[in-house]
Design goal:
The structure is a homodimer. With about 110 residues, the first copy, chain A, is mainly alpha-helical. Chain A has a domain at about 5-75: Arc Repressor Mutant, subunit A (Orthogonal Bundle). Chain A is about 70% helix and about 10% strand. Chain A is built from five helices and two strands, in the order H-H-H-H-E-E-H. Chain A has a two-stranded antiparallel ribbon. In chain A, helix 3 packs across helix 4. The two termini of chain A are about 35 Å apart. The relative contact order of chain A is 0.14. Chains A and B meet through helix 1, helix 2 and helix 5 of A and helix 1, helix 2 and helix 5 of B. Chain A binds a DNA duplex (30 and 30 nucleotides) through helix 3 and helix 4.
Chain lengths: ~110, ~110
DNA sequence: TTCTTTCATCGTTAAACAACGATATAGGCG
DNA sequence: CGCCTATATCGTTGTTTAACGATGAAAGAA
């Protein structure tokens, strides 16, 4: 996973409303459409739709047209991939950082 | 860890240059100052300093004045905390999402 | 066909971000 | 003290984001 892609997903997750939207979508029994999310938030429908679009474009959720509504589902594989990539990055940073501190103590 | 804090860290990580800066800081042997980072990037010093500020304010790195320079070190505990929070969130989302799909298949 | 519902998109506004060059401050050196 | 170095901050510019109300398109009901 390239930095650009990781950063794009992080950016999509970098807004509390969008974290909330993801939880609402996950908690919702069965289908979850835009109106369901809007009902749970003090935001205009257009604003919610815009946030949803950001999540779709980041590849974190999927749109499924269903009659007159659009249902959204999480793409769990993408969350897993991001978690893995982030974990690897954190491990690398932490390891290098620790090694440097070790040398610092010696010098 | 609250959504607002998670989102703030995610936002700070949501730019490829900042991911790069973190790697540069971690890879660097011993101290890492602003000039060291700037040397590795095709960006103005002021721009790099600004990115560093974002990382400091997100609580991901720490500034340590050292003579005429400022050294920066990763706060590994914050990375661990974020990784943990993100992992929990992902697990919750995935679990709920899977349960809903299960019920969907039944209904 | 006509009305209703759902929702994405448009247009707007204000705020935040990203990049730059220029400036200012603070620590060391002569 | 005066000079140099490192770097944070200022001011500017152009871009992106976040929020809203209004509009428009598509599916279904009357």
């Amino acid at each position: 996973m390239k930095d650009e892609e990781i950063a794009a997903m992080m950016r999509a997750l970098g807004h509390p409303v969008r974290l909330n939207i993801l939880r609402i979508m996950a908690q919702r029994q069965r289908d979850c459409c835009c109106a369901d999310v809007t009902d749970c938030l003090p935001l205009a429908q257009s604003t919610v739709s815009q946030h949803i679009k950001v999540l779709v474009e980041a590849g974190l959720i999927e749109r499924r047209p269903k009659g007159t509504r659009n249902c959204y589902v999480l793409i769990t594989s993408k969350f897993a991939a991001l978690e893995s990539a982030f974990g690897k990055m954190t491990a690398a940073l932490t390891e290098l950082s620790a090694r440097n501190r070790h040398q610092e103590n010696k010098g």
